[in-house]
Amino acid sequence: MPVESGSSAAARQAKQKRKSHSLSIRRTNSTEQDRSGLQRDMVEGQDSKLPLSLRSNLLDLFSQIEREFENLYIENLELRREIETLNDRLTAEGQTFEGADLAKGALKTKASHSTSQLSQKLKTTYKASTSKIVSSFKATTSRAVCQLVREYVGHRDGLWDLSITRTQPMVLGTASADHSAMLWSIETGKCLLKYMGHQGSVNSIKFHPTEQMALTASGDQTAHIWRYMVQLPTPQPVADISQTPCEDDVDFSDKDEADGEAEGPNDCPSIRVATTALRSHQGVVIAADWLVGGKQVVTASWDRAANLYDVETSELVHSLTGHDQELTHCCTHPTQRLVVTSSRDTTFRLWDFRDPSIHSVNVFQGHTDTVTSAVFTVGDNVVSGSDDRTVKVWDLKNMRSPIATIRTDSAVNRISVSVNQKIIALPHDNRQVRLFDMSGVRLARLPRSNRQGHRRMVCCSAWCEENSTCNLFTCGFDRQAIGWNINIPVLLQEK
Question: Could you give the C-alpha distances from 230 to 136, 169, 182, 192, 194, in angstroms and in order?
Fold first, then answer.
């Protein structure tokens, strides 16, 4: 009997392996084909109006989906075992892993598993130190309490500006894009008077320091001075609104009210003729304010100039030029003859009229976008806000760099500073209003929930130091002004 050589025996074994592998593949394919054929037979036996070819394609797709779910299910089981192993290891070290209790049937990918594992490790590692930091923070500060007191609704378009009278009777004034300005009772929310003398959007309103006169700036390239006489109605009980912490993260959808015209006050008296009209600008007058004493006013315009007028004669005293682009705001010092103007050229300028013979100019450069407003505070500080999402506090004695910088997540509009509490109110394009102290520490954010807060861009804020019910007012392009009661704890004020 012949004996096989080594090479022939090895060849025969390799051939048998290839044959067995081929048979295995054939058996697998035949099993899938049998299953597919059986399913096709079942499909053919069912009553359906779909073509047979389309039903067969759908069946193939469903089979592929089923296989994918099977693979995910197997992977999920493996991940569970890994999590249980990790949990046992952490339990032995005196720690627990919350991710072990997964919902039945939940499919977790390896990426999410790794992310949750890393997150949990960070939590367990730094839990103690973080708790200490939070505890120390809570021990030194406490939440400010903000309460929405009243809404002032009646304008037919967005509100650009608001102001509070400096003399009795104390009323709220609003300037609107509907070509009108309104005076409101702070306590009742009732419209007391409506000024309709402008032919364009009313962009600003400011009250005389001692007399019942208002100064409004408009898109019709004029500024008007008009007198008013109002009688306050009997105060009504304030609505029982529970006090809400300012850090209210509850937000609502962008669902706005109908864009139809709001119903204006029907019994509100109106004024249609100005006492004095100031007409020297060649562009939109965006803002105006009274100088200390009330004998002069300053206006800011898109014609890149600010004008200083004599109130009694309506004559132009000075034309303040130098800005490279349109002006956005102007503000006067409460006790000195100082004016600050802001512009789209990313700067704001300080104009000094304390010496009647000359007036000096200082330029503040520190923002990278439009300076939307700059206001004086008590002392030698100026606070500026910008579209570059920052607010800066400046010392007039050192104008090279700000002494504090506040960074936000949205453009900042017309800011205001509380004289008594030294708090800056920041109205934002994103409908938020935030409160900071002069050193740049965030104190609060006004609540925004289903029933509170502005629904569109907040354009302006104004503090009222002499009213205990409403000490902060805001207005926005949702056609309303809101009165707030801000209670800042003494601990925060001292800090």
Answer: 51, 8, 12, 6, 11
